[in-house]
Amino acid sequence: MNSLLILTTGGTIDKIYFDDKSDYQVGEPQIGRILKELGVVIPFTVVSVMRKDSLHIDAADRAALKAAIEARDENHVLITHGTDTMVETAKVLAEIPGKTMVLTGALNPASFRGSDAEFNIGTAVGAVQCLPPGVYIAMNGRIWDPAKVKKNVSANRFEAAD
């Protein structure tokens, strides 16, 4: 792997909360800072494609993300994405041949103490280097096939789909 392309779409991983009433905005991508703080030595480029809660990502946004991946030369792509519609986006990206793409995110903002962001990012960085071309989801310490996973909202985790 020569270089890792990181595309950010927003989601909880990048959220900044302003009060106890859940007033938030999607802030600057956190992944570049996290990778630098953790001493990751592989070359990477971070490109912000959008800054949205995944509940607001629509078909046009998914098409724009797909086009952004297709327009780049890198074959290893890590995508940070909100968890609520991550599976839906991954299924759209599965149409892209010849690239290894791993989507990850966080169930708590990266800026929160005890966030799962660093762990999920670390899992995704390892996965994108080792997996064959295709699209995958890295959450909760596992690598998932998007066709076989779902988010369990009440348990706040990803699990095998029925």
Automatic annotation (TrEMBL):
InterPro entries listed in its UniProt record: Asp/glu_Ase-like_sf, Asparaginase/glutaminase-like, L-asparaginase_N, L-asparaginase_N_sf
Active site: 12 (o-isoaspartyl threonine intermediate)
Annotated L-asparaginase N-terminal domain residues: 4-156
Higher taxonomy: Bacteria, Pseudomonadati, Pseudomonadota, Gammaproteobacteria, Lysobacterales
Pfam families: Asparaginase
Protein name: Asparaginase
Binding site for substrate: 54, 83-84
GO function terms (MF aspect): asparaginase activity
Source organism superkingdom: Bacteria
